[in-house]
Amino acid sequence: MTIRAVRHYHQIGLLPEPDRDASGYRTYDADAVVRLIRIRTLAEAGVPLARVRELLDADPETFVTATAEIDRQLRQQIRALQEHRRRIAQLGSGDSLALPQEVVDYLDRLRATGVPEAIIAPERDAWILMAARLPEALPALMAEKVAQLANPKVIRLYQLIGRIAQDWQDEKLLHETADLMSELLEQAAASGELDRQDEYTQDAAFIRLMDSFADGSHPAVGRLRELIEERGWTGWTRIEKRKPSDVDREPPRH
Q: Which run of H or E residues covers position 71?
């Protein structure tokens, strides 16, 4: 046992400090050594130092009750550590952090179609926000997203967005992307898919948060929002068809 440990036991009152001899050295008798051994045995068994004094001075019945309680606490800590290990083992990649498995699988599907990481990363972070705010809606959303990947036009859209990530000032590319987005939105409106937005886009503050996240993720987002608005669509996280009367009231663009 180190001198530092013994002095610490003196400071916290576990071990009475002995008298000093003529040379100024502490002199420990057999009782002190026995107490030190008992302290060390309890500490090495996992008993918190705050409870060691209680056990040192306890009668047999109290000792059994206290050690049973400490054992229960240790088992609880072991379960917590095992859960930490389980979750750490699931973090095979950064995608797994704060995301359920169905989203991780979806992101892997995107990669398999050739979507670049520059697009995957903001998509992943957007789903982290969605998973935190709307966990109950996520399974249905993911089922829809996976089904959409069977549409070649959706894959084409991701490919175009991947190109925009490299050259976001190419107006021809941006207009082509906006045209395709508008076409897909028309299809979603016709199939009733847009109507299902009401199930998870009622929180205006959350929509603003998601929109601001999208705007900050890449300079092209703001331009694309302008272009799809010109094609009759408003919003980004929640997209709606503009009414003809709204369009008519707008001044002409020059």
A: helix 60-90
Q: Which residues does 89 contact at the CB level (< 8 Å), separation at least 6?
A: none
Q: What is the pLDDT of residue 182?
A: 96
Per cent of the chain over pLDDT 70 is: 93
Please, what sign has the CA dihedral across residues 79, 84, 87, 89?
Answer: negative
User: How many domains in the chain?
Assistant: 2
- Nearest 5 degrees, angle CA 241-CA 187-CA 254? 45
| Bridge partners, 45 (sequence order) | none
Buried b (16+ CB within 10 A) or exposed e, 77-92: eeeeeeeeeeeeeeee
Instruction: Work out the burial of residue 251: count CB atoms within 10 Å of its CB; fewer than 13 is exposed, 13-18 middle, 19 or more buried.
Output: exposed
Regions of the chain short of the pLDDT cut 70: 90-94, 244-254
Tokens encoding 70: 């400490």
User: Which residues sit opposite 240 in a β-bridge?
Assistant: 234
Identify whether 197 is part of a domain.
yes
Give yes or no: residues 80 and 151 share one domain.
no
Q: What is the pLDDT of residue 80?
A: 93
Q: Is the pTM of the predicted complex or chain greater than 0.70?
A: no
pLDDT attached to residue 75: 92
Same domain, 25 and 136: no
Return the residue matching tokens 């987005």: 181
